[in-house]
């Protein structure tokens, strides 16, 4: 525990509305820990926009991690750097050490790993591998190490859910991300970031979609939606290519069900709560409140936004229902926003509709107003 330190910082954020001046200064304290090479690891938000840091000289930032050093030999006397351990497994015990608010001495809390998944890093606006632990990360605790039962560091504590969202849930940056950051800096003299593939992809959970794409029943994959024109992959991949594996690892499928409805304020309030203006996707709100209809009866329809069915444009929910019921093609192919595609086998979709309605206690496949306007049947 002698390698765990407290980091004091004075911050002065830039004023993006008036870039010729900065905002008012404020101070913070957080945690960090000593690693080899006379360096200290902590959270990026612990030292962002710094004007003065007691553990001085920032080396670099990595999403939610920062590396510092101290230009004082006395600081390093008698301090043994931590050793890194392997990525823990679910239910492995971890010990979080740091200096949370409520006292001046070190605090140690023992918990277990409850989830390992890709997490959104608030500070870095990126998605990286993360650990969820059943212990809240309190103010001042961020940046401290998480140790396994052998005393090896398995990550950096970095954020927690708000108290009104959940209790006793915190997150840890695991060692693979930390090691990438350290090795990147040692190799390049600066943090250059994580690689980006340069593509957008779609899940292939639907068997009809996979068959329509020429896949075998046992194959699993994802579908390429778009390729960044500036990325090297643009010379190899294109939209609607199927990727079966990556670096020798097979790609799995996820399953979902689809429901079509028009977008309205009650729908948004049901999906995103009373604060739907702030919680709903911005592109959905923009289309609902600001987009100009291309015809008098045009409606905004979700899933995502249905642009076409089997190549024919969809202008409203009634038109979509008419096209689905009258479809005689082998597949129902729905073209969505952002180059996504949903494919259903027509006969199977229509035949299983009654079972789906019964299973989910849905009284009807369509609303009463659409039933009343069914001249197509």
From TrEMBL:
Residue ranges annotated for the Peptidase S1 domain, each copy included: 15-182
InterPro entries named among the record's database cross-references: DEGP_PDZ, DEGP_PDZ_sf, Peptidase_S1_PA, Peptidase_S1_PA_chymotrypsin, Peptidase_S1C, Trypsin_dom
Domain of life from the UniProt record: Eukaryota
Sequence ranges assigned to domain Protease Do-like PDZ in this UniProt record: 305-369
Keywords: Hydrolase, Protease, Serine protease
Similarity-based family: Belongs to the peptidase S1C family.
PANTHER family named among the record's database cross-references: PEPTIDASE DO-RELATED, PTHR45980
Protein name as it appears in the record: Protease Do-like 9 isoform X2
Gene designation per UniProt: LOC107926682
């Amino acid at each position: 525990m002698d390698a765990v330190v407290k980091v004091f910082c004075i911050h002065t954020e830039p004023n993006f509305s008036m870039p010729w001046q900065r905002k008012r200064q404020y101070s913070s304290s957080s945690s960090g820990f000593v690693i080899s090479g006379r360096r200290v690891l902590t959270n990026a938000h612990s030292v962002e926009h710094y004007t003065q840091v007691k553990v001085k000289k920032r080396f670099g930032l990595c999403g939610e991690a920062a590396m510092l050093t101290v230009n004082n030999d006395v600081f390093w006397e008698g301090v043994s750097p931590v050793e890194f351990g392997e990525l823990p497994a679910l239910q492995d015990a971890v010990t979080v050490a740091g200096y949370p608010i409520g006292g001046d001495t070190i605090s140690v809390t023992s918990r277990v790993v409850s989830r390992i998944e890709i997490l959104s890093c608030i500070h870095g606006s990126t998605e990286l591998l993360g650990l969820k632990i059943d212990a809240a990360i309190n103010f001042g605790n961020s940046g401290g190490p998480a140790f396994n039962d052998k005393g090896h560091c398995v990550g950096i504590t970095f954020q927690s859910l708000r108290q009104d969202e959940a209790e006793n849930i915190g997150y840890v940056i695991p060692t693979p991300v930390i090691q990438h950051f350290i090795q990147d800096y040692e190799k390049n003299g600066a943090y250059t970031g994580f690689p980006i593939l340069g593509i957008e992809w779609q899940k292939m959970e639907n068997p009809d979609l996979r068959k329509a794409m020429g896949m075998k029943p046992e194959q699993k994959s994802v579908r390429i939606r778009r390729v960044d024109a500036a990325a090297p992959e643009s010379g190899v991949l294109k939209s609607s290519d199927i990727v079966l594996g990556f670096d020798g690892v097979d790609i799995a499928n996820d399953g979902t069900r689809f429901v079509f409805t028009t977008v309205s304020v009650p729908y948004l309030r049901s999906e995103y709560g009373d604060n739907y203006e702030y919680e709903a996707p911005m592109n959905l709100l923009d289309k609902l409140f600001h987009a100009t209809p291309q015809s008098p009866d045009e409606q905004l329809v979700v899933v995502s936004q249905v642009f076409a069915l089997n190549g024919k444009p969809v202008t409203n929910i009634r038109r979509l229902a008419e096209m689905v019921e009258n479809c005689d093609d082998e597949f129902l192919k729905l073209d969505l926003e952002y180059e996504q595609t949903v494919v259903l086998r027509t006969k199977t979709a229509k035949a299983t509709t009654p079972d789906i309605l019964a299973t989910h206690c849905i009284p009807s496949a369509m609303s009463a107003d659409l039933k009343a306007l069914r001249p197509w049947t």
